[in-house]
Design goal:
The chain is α/β, with parallel strands linked by helices and about 375 residues long. The chain is built from 15 helices and twelve strands. The strands form two sheets. The chain has a six-stranded mixed beta sheet with strand order 3-2-1-4-5-6, sandwiched between helices. A six-stranded mixed beta sheet has the order 8-10-9-7-11-12. The site of NADP nicotinamide-adenine-dinucleotide phosphate has 27 residues, from helix 1, strand 2 and helix 14.
Length: about 375
């Protein structure tokens, strides 16, 4: 049998999703090489401390060492042979797959450099695709950029939307429950939990960011709504999405502990909203809605006996209203968070880009 062609992949970020993805790649790559003739070959893995790089591909031993080191809470920079990240600038080459698994704008310069060198780019990080249009536009409508995991984790949300456009359908509106964390909160409030208890539980279960306001602000949902809008072809600015946070402005400028101590005073507000919804056979859900003109994300009362009302846990629900799917929208629904499903969404993008660049890899041997 011919030797499989190497697919060089560089990972920026090796947190929850990054670690899981490396393990998934170790699990599937030899079977995939046997089937497709393409061997996924991590050549670089970076976190904030540095990068472990080997142009011929990191060995399984090196990859296992990264996983062990990160699992113990140590950084890549502490491993033998690790280098400063500057080396990244030299490794970006035509056909290298650059995978952004951070949650920061700081990766923008390296992504832009990757684009210049015709690297394939895979994003789990929403920030580059949800930046101001002037900055983000280079990430859209390019066959060598994929960002499936930015909305709905591993669910086929972006690919479904692209399929609708490619087949000539006209998308008129997109609605969705796009946050597992806020979904959990809504379901808890619906069950009769106090808002403050639901936030505290979500925080201690690790469902929220260390500062729960990062989720409660609605900004993460607004970014996802913007990514959907832009994928639909609507070149909206972040300011076109109206965001209703799940806490008042007055609790913005304080520390996390003070915030957590202050929120019991919001319990009566959400209790009243929940009671009002229940009196009309409705439930509260944190919903995003976008059209070509703009969007809105916020708490909305929805019929209890609808698919929205049936959502539980990290369940996401995305409805595409189009010229063809007019009376009943096309729906994608399922778990929209979690390292395993998110990593699988990223892996799917990597595999597609590897196929895209196949001829290049085969020529290099
Ligand atoms: N978890 C989910 O369910 C889910 C679902 C959908 C999408 N996502 C997205 O997937 C991404 C990763 O999520 P996660 O849960 O894995 O996050 P995480 O655990 O916080 O990991 C982030 C990683 O990025 C690294 N990083 C941050 N800034 C960096 C920089 N400037 N250069 C190099 N590395 C940098 C961090 O390095 P250090 O460890 O050195 O700080 C860390 O390894 C996020 O954008 C998230 O929104 C996650």
């Amino acid at each position: 049998m011919n030797k499989a062609a190497q697919v060089p992949v560089v990972f920026i970020g090796v947190g929850n999703v990054g670690r899981t993805l490396l393990r998934q790649i170790l699990d599937v790559r030899s079977a995939m090489a046997g089937k497709t003739g393409l061997l996924l070959s991590p050549v670089g893995v970076a976190d904030t401390s540095g990068i472990l790089y080997n142009a011929d591909g990191l060995t399984d031993r090196q990859l296992q060492a990264i996983l062990r080191t990160r699992f113990r809470g140590n950084k890549v920079g502490s491993l033998p042979g690790a280098q400063r990240k500057r080396v990244l600038d030299d490794v970006l080459d035509d056909g290298v797959l650059l995978v952004d698994l951070t949650a920061t704008e700081e990766s923008m310069p390296i992504l832009e450099l990757g684009l210049k060198h015709r690297c394939g780019i895979v994003l789990a990080n929403k920030k580059p695709v949800a930046a101001k249009w002037e900055i983000a536009k280079s990430f859209f409508d390019s066959p060598i950029i994929r960002y499936e995991a930015t909305v709905g984790a591993g669910l086929p949300v972006i690919s479904t939307l692209k399929y609708l456009r490619e087949t000539g359908d006209r998308v008129t509106a997109i609605e969705g429950c796009l946050s597992g964390t806020l979904g959990y909160l809504c379901a808890e409030i619906e069950r009769g939990s106090a808002y403050s208890a639901a936030v505290r539980d979500a925080k201690s279960l690790g469902y929220t960011e260390p500062d729960p306001r990062d989720d409660l602000s609605g900004q993460d949902v607004a970014r996802k709504a913007l990514i959907l809008a832009r994928t639909a072809g609507w070149q909206l600015e972040p300011s076109a999405i109206d965001v209703e946070p799940m806490y008042p402005e007055s609790l913005s400028g304080i520390g996390v502990e003070e915030f957590m101590n202050s929120i019991p005073r919001l319990d009566s507000v959400y209790e009243a909203e929940n009671k009002q919804a229940q009196s009309k056979e409705q439930v509260l859900r944190y919903i995003a809605r976008v059209t070509p003109k703009g969007g809105k994300v916020g708490l909305t009362a929805m019929p209890r006996d609808s698919a929205w009302g049936a959502l539980r846990g990290s369940g996401n629900y995305i409805a595409f209203h189009t010229a063809r799917y007019d009376a009943i929208p096309l729906v994608v629904s399922g778990p929209g968070a979690g390292a395993e499903v998110t990593a699988a969404g990223v892996l799917g993008d990597i595999i597609q880009l590897a196929e895209y660049f196949r001829v290049k890899y085969e020529k290099r041997g």
